[in-house]
Amino acid sequence: MYQKVITYHRENNEELSIRELLKKWLIPKKWQHFFRIQQDVLINGKYNSFNTIVQDNDVVTLNFNFPPRTEQHYLPGHDPVDVVYEDNDIIVVNKVAGKKTHPNKADEDDSLMNDVEAYLKDGHPYMVHRIDMETSGLVLISKSPYLVPIFNRQLSNKTLHREYLALVNLDAPIDNKGTIDLPIGQDPTDVRKRMVTSDGLNAITKYEVLKKNSDFALLQLNLLTGRTHQLRVHLAHNHWPIVNDPLYNSHTKTGNLSLFAHKLAFKQPFSDKTKIIQAKISKNMYNLICADLKATKKLT
């Protein structure tokens, strides 16, 4: 059984009932029902009606005494993991380019989730989100299956933010900032690829130019949706393909895809606190950015 003990701190003079607090914490309705009928929410060690107002500094105990939605485990991997942040509930790791986030088959053991399975030893990782195999950077992983639906709701309501850095070829002019709002669907000519298509899924990307010259730009990118290859497709469609993209960039490749998930911001579960985690860009990508942006003297 997973148990969470929280000392509740009232924010902005709010007065919330137990039911309202569980809703605020993004706990699924079905689980709220289990908590109530099984009397598995305790306030200062005692069960109370769900209409009870939770007081400042009350100790709230949640006993997750019911099956989670998923219990998938992975074979142990073989590579070390670059841990950027870790606590009792989550781990944030810096994925290298070229490694899959998760295995596609049960007998695979060469993905990031396999490596984290080996790292945790007595625990198991549960995937919150993923990044493309060619992309490097931060990946948030839960240590409990009971937190995954909470983070999924954060993704849906935009309280879990993912920010990227990308070096792009400027095959067309680019504004200093903007929003790309174009639907993305399957490319009918290549099963590996996606494309902008009128009948695709809604996809929104915000971008801002950090530096640029006549040939390249360094962009800060924010995902408002999470479609497969979204950043790569949106940028390539606008004639700003990411440097070294093997699928969407026709320029000569000189290394790994220049797309780095450098920042995560999310609400810590059962709290009002926002956690912001940033990772340093890899030396290889940093050197590539510097070399390309210095290719001409017309930096802006």
TrEMBL record:
It holds the Pfam family PseudoU_synth_2. SUPFAM superfamilies: Pseudouridine synthase. The keyword Glycosyltransferase does not apply. GO terms for molecular function: catalytic activity, acting on RNA; pseudouridine synthase activity; RNA binding. The keyword Isomerase applies. It catalyses: a uridine in RNA = a pseudouridine in RNA. It comes from the Bacteria. Keywords: Isomerase. One of its GO terms (biological process) is enzyme-directed rRNA pseudouridine synthesis. Residues 89-237 form the Pseudouridine synthase RsuA/RluA-like domain. PROSITE patterns: PSI_RLU. Belongs to the pseudouridine synthase RluA family. This is RNA pseudouridylate synthase. It comes from Companilactobacillus zhachilii.
